[in-house]
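Can't paste images in this forum, so I'm doing it all in text. The chain is below; anyone willing to post the predicted structure tokens underneath?
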Amino acid sequence: MTVAPGLTRTPATAVVPPEEFADVAAHQALDRPLTPEDTAAVVAMLARDDAAALTGQTLVADGGLVLM
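Text version of the structure:
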């Protein structure tokens, strides 16, 4: 399994202009910038025993950007 997060506020993305975060947030269902905790929650969900049947997938955790 892999997790493919969307644009996330982290120290590494501090160079990304605030307008770009606002533009991405305006085009995703979540309607706010993603946080590292958002991605961590997805990873924690996948680590549960009841997610054992999920194999060989890439889970896109982009706040619904693909949907919009």
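The longest strand covers residues 2-5. The mean pLDDT is 91.
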